[in-house]
Amino acid sequence: MVDKSFQTEILLELVFSVSHEKSERLILDKSLPLYLRKLNCFIAGVLKIEEESRIKELMIVPFAAGKTNDWDKVKTYFSSVSMEDGGKPTQFTYNSVYYYGLCLNGYGLLILGRKKPFTFLFLKELENVVHHLGKALIQSNEIEKRQLAEKNLIVSEQRLMKFLQESPSDIEVYDSRGLQVVVNKAYEEFWGIPSSKTLLNFNILKCEAIKGMELFKYVNKAYEGEAVSIEDYKFCPENNVSNVYEGVERWMSTRIYPLISQNDELTHIVVTHDDVTHRKEAEVKLREAKEKAEESDRLKTAFLSNMSHEIRTPMNGILGFAELLKQSTFDEEDRELSIELIEKSSARMLSIIDDLVNISKLESGQMELYISETNVNTQIQNVRNLLSDKIKSKNLELKIKSSLSNNDCFVKTDREKLYLVLRNLTENAIKYSKHGVIEIIVDKKEGFFKFSVKDEGIGIPLKKQSAIFDRFIQADIGDKRAFQGAGLGLAISKAFVEMLGGEIWIESKEGIGSKFYFTIPCNVDFKEKNLLKNSITN
Ligand code: ADP
């Protein structure tokens, strides 16, 4: 039997202890065993009521080894007996030991085992203590739960903060008065301003620079509770809003939205900016590539239809005049005329076929260079000899102006290609001239032979000039058919000149005439410059 004053002391200490020890585990692991020892209990346990009313043994406090064999039976007994919260202790005697089960005020069950029974009065007092202890345990349990929830909240907040900080979008949070309260890393990179300068110093509603921008209208809308999205707009702050973007035009996407509390009050607004310039640029490039592909497709179709016309016309000429030749009514003059026309049509066919072969070789990179010592003056003379009849027949005049003496008219180059370029330019000059003089001029300057072929023909409109060296575009030029031609000559000439290490360009005025220039280097190491592998370029 515990002496009365001692009992009171225990109870006071227990009450005092539980009111300070707020943690459930501390109460159960540390305080409780001490007092149980003072109460001369040789065994004790707390059975906690878990959710769904399951009872879980939390702690056994065995003082005397070897005397706990009956614990399972005792526990089962008390778990099955219905006990009231704050009600009297339930007593159970087993193997001459007294066990008391006391309700821990909704928390669970405290079971005490003693060799001797408690006095009635002591049990009465113990009821209050246990009641109080249960309350404290429940309270500490709640505190623990709250702490856990707070800890979880902190973890989730940290996770959220990390996400916010690492987000590539600029994120800015402003409180209800417009004061900037949170910004992320992207904000600093975005605007080139350290957050330490703006955070809690910057008021979006009071910033004069922002007030002058359209953005301010949307900020106000967000403060009125409306979420606004401004997709892909051009952003170029003229004022001091940004160090980084000042005067630089960028593409932006912006979202501004309010944060509303549970009480329906606007607490903050969030502004997010995304610099979508790269995406926008990629879109533009994609669109351009698509347009180019469509254009190229259109030009190819036009080229093919032109090609079929260019092949059919001389073919019809050949077949038609061959048929006429069979007729015996033809006199000698008609006969010669027919043969001449067949020859001309065949030559035209051959030239088209040559052009096609050349262009396909250039396209596939199979065009080769044959370098040999070449007399530039001789090549010009050859062109004159070839085309003199044509020139005469059109009442044109051809002048050759060469400043090259017999000593400096030699160059190591691909003779055939040089000849073809000169021939093509002169043929064009004849083709596109109704009258006047055609001049082939050559001189040597700064390590280059500079050639030009000048005519007083129809000239080329400025807007078409950049296109004439491209291989499919000529076919698209409206006036083409009136003059015949596959539209490949200049594309081939350009590719040849570039293969030889030079450049080709044009000066022309519509109705006045054209002057085509091209250069070839006096000395060039074709292997070193990798020119042997050159192919046609657009
Ligand atoms: P083609 O003469 O067979 O049409 P080219 O590639 O030689 O093809 O020339 C391309 C286009 O450039 C011609 O269709 C013509 O419109 C224009 N052109 C070329 N040379 C001249 C020139 N000397 N005068 C006027 N236009 C020219």
Report what the structure shows.
By secondary structure, the chain is of the alpha+beta class. The chain has 15 helices and 17 strands. Helix 12 (415-431) packs antiparallel against helix 15 (489-499). The structure holds adenosine-5'-diphosphate (ADP). Residues 428-429, 432, 455, 457-460, 468, 474, 477, 480, 485-491, 514 line the site of adenosine-5'-diphosphate.
Seen as an oligomer or otherwise, the chain set is single chain
What are the segments in which pLDDT stays under 50 over at least 5 consecutive residues?
Answer: 533-538
Structural class per helix/strand content? alpha+beta
Q: Give the helix tally.
A: 15
Radius of gyration: 51 Å
State the end-to-end CA separation. Answer: 112 Å
Overall mean pLDDT:
84
Shape, principal axes of CA atoms: rod-shaped
Largest sheet: 5 strands, antiparallel
Percent of residues in helices comes to: 40-55%
**Relative strand content:** 15-25%
Main sheet strand line-up? 2-1-5-4-3
Bound molecules: adenosine-5'-diphosphate
Number of DSSP-assigned strands: 17
